[in-house]
Design goal:
Chain A has a domain of 284 residues: Type I PLP-dependent aspartate aminotransferase-like (Major domain) (Aspartate Aminotransferase, domain 2), CATH 3.40.640.10. A 7-stranded mixed β-sheet of chain A has the order 3-9-8-7-6-4-5. Chain A has a 4-stranded antiparallel β-sheet with strand order 10-11-14-13. A 3-stranded mixed β-sheet of chain A has the order 1-2-12. Chain A is an alpha/beta fold and 492 residues long. The first copy, chain A, is built from 16 helices and 14 strands. The first copy, chain A, starts with 22 loop residues before the first helix and ends with a helix. At the A-B interface, helix 2, helix 4, helix 5, helix 6 and strand 3 of A face helix 2, helix 4, helix 5, helix 6 and strand 3 of B. Chains A, B: It catalyses: 4-aminobutanoate + 2-oxoglutarate = succinate semialdehyde + L-glutamate.
Chain lengths: 492, 492
Amino acid sequence: MLRPRGFTALPRAWPSRAASSSVAAAYYPSEPVAPSLVTASVPGPKSIELNQHLGAVFDNRASYFVTDYGRSVGNYISDADGNQLLDVYCQISSIALGYNNPALLATAASPQMASALVNRPALACFPPADYGRILQDGLLAAAPPGTNKVWTALSGSCANETAYKAAFMYQAARRRGSLDFTDEELTSAMENQPPGAPDRAILSFDKGFHGRLFGSLSTTRSKPIHKLDIPAFNWPKAPFPALQYPLAEHVRENAEEEARCLAEFERIVRLHPPHSIAAIVVEPVQAEGGDNHASPAFFQGLRALTLEHDILMIVDEVQTGVGACGKFWAHEHWDLAVPPDMVTFSKKFQAAGFYFSDPALQPAQPYRQFNTWCGDPSKALLARTIYQEITRHDLVARTAQVGAYLYGQMEQMFARHPAAVHSLRGENFGTFIAWSCENPAKRNELLMRMRSVGVNIGGCGNHSVRLRPSLVFERAHADVFLEALEYSLRAL
Amino acid sequence: MLRPRGFTALPRAWPSRAASSSVAAAYYPSEPVAPSLVTASVPGPKSIELNQHLGAVFDNRASYFVTDYGRSVGNYISDADGNQLLDVYCQISSIALGYNNPALLATAASPQMASALVNRPALACFPPADYGRILQDGLLAAAPPGTNKVWTALSGSCANETAYKAAFMYQAARRRGSLDFTDEELTSAMENQPPGAPDRAILSFDKGFHGRLFGSLSTTRSKPIHKLDIPAFNWPKAPFPALQYPLAEHVRENAEEEARCLAEFERIVRLHPPHSIAAIVVEPVQAEGGDNHASPAFFQGLRALTLEHDILMIVDEVQTGVGACGKFWAHEHWDLAVPPDMVTFSKKFQAAGFYFSDPALQPAQPYRQFNTWCGDPSKALLARTIYQEITRHDLVARTAQVGAYLYGQMEQMFARHPAAVHSLRGENFGTFIAWSCENPAKRNELLMRMRSVGVNIGGCGNHSVRLRPSLVFERAHADVFLEALEYSLRAL
């Protein structure tokens, strides 16, 4: 099936998709069947020229290529030169249903959307009459098991930071009981000093990524370049398991590693005064940090320890959430007896925020968890359509299936290239699949080779590659990807 | 002209606007000529019922009333019960051109908007081909004098925080010179410790408001309820002048107060090691903090001191910016010899971010000022239309004129109610007008009375009222407002 050859020709006779079973074909009758490259390399000359103009006014040094979103369709992203690439990166894991999805275009053209855009409300002060319904049918219908309330924000960073604020206010209220704020608290808060601005902390994990604003960046532990020169809170971090692959061959070592991390977590907690760690924040898979997984047992152990020490548990599903991981929410894999206290989201939902259930996580006084906009109804409308389309087309189960197929094929392929790639991970985790390369230079070379045969793909960590396709990435797309990967690995 | 009477009847025969000179009439042929109240009080029964449902899933305890945005038009906001109120609060100063503005509706219906919504890009990695043009014709065409670059964010809070990050990276790079990061910096940054995560600070001013995320909240000094229980950076604050009104009667006292504040600012700066204060952040008018003004001489003095001490100056125009203050940017009133290093914006532009000119404020390495979305092209499209409409209709000059009329009328009115209201402020500052009441209870009573006669209006500080109408608030609207205010003051 794998036929190594060039990808530089225009679309060729690829096996057509069985329309009856393909959601992508139903959404995108004109989706290409293969990448199509019309310039010798990507970015091509038009991308380069447009980028030079853009660079005069906007920091675009991270640009892959200038994109023609009008011509992008389904799983294929088009660049300014007319190249069409299979996209398994999807705007850093943010495109849920493919480019120019017709259901989302209908939502974008709706009178509700027009009103949400041109009459942007201060949601907590002047809520639109339909906002409750939009939340109920969308974001809240998608709420993780055990949660039934939502706070809406604007980005993954502020989703996490507002969750942190909820945790700090909750812990302070618990300690304060029914008492009012003291004069000392009222005065010291204005001076940024305890007890009003207390020394409490959010504990995060080594290699975790939770955003780039000041609170979230203090919990981000991915790479120095994310953190250098920015003041940070003196908050603790704990080790995250470094599992060895294949998992089946390292059962004992990995169990020991997870036990070590749990013990170290508990040791760090005990070093801190009781209740001085308000919450932990943890990703189901540390995505930016290198797609680091841990077992359900590890997360069950963490949950037990947080309950024992009266620490809240915030699960950051900004990258893992909304269907790509084999469940709607990745932490559903854990089978926790007590659900997380808060679950944050953004990216594939366009809308951002956090879920919770304990009413005490909503501060007793208004105007504490508050800001001008408190979210954005235009994004809540998009999230509702995204949720409804995922449900209607059973996209979580479909993504789990294509992920299983992809993983199986890659397992076989990687056995043929043991020097180039290793540590394939994400089995039974939908299309949330990653692997590692020999070193950062080889990883970057592989990313470039994949692009040169028409696949847009991203790295993570120092020497890993991550797959982040949309939820309408199907077996036919997987086959295109697999052929490109085999070709690229042989050329390495 | 002021005819105290009830406002509870349906629209009455109000003098019609001279269409030839009214932008509001051109935009909004069906805009009401007066408030219209159909329920005995606001919120009415439908608002209350809808709010009870919404409260089950969303923190809406700050709600004024549930809003019918579909029926809102121009300067009039409609609630769920069918009441139509003249809006001089405008979603906490966020509605630039009135409700359901036809030019913005056209932008909302454009193919560019549809694409921006459904194909939301990771702007720094996959910039749309038209993003440079959208910025050039919109946000950058509106750039304050002396700035020519923009960084786009999502809210006022993250506009300020990304500006703070730019300041910290700039100061560290200046000190580091051409050297690379040291191993100690690389290692300590990952531990949230200096020197990698340094002890530098942003200095802000007493009663300033700059947002509610962790970095911005550390610079916010408005009220304890905004800050309580949230850990904060140990950053310094300086006093902001407390001017006495009328200004003409307190020339000497106010000059002394501003000199005192400048001296105290310099004293605080000198207490800190050189370059440990990376930047100051200051609002042209401290809006949330009570509409506190200071003279151009004060800001000129601040600018001179920041230059002398090698401290960056960030002007927070989140609330003051975009045309309501008599200039497009409020700090244009100051006639600074050297422009601010960064100017932040959000609210009326829908798009958020900061302006700058020094290329060194863009870090030398990519991926440092970076995040998944780096802004939102759907908001940049709205900002472009807002800017173009402001220019086309000369709305800054018009708002300055109506503000001058309003201020003059209020000055006369307040002379008749010296016990109820005082410290009228905002002369020559467009419609950015405020005043103080006897005490917080009387202020809140005035806000309620204004609402009961059909004017939606907001407070600021502890006992002040602020006007924040749109830029299409004209003399006819001012007359409706003035009559409602006279009636309410008499009833106090």
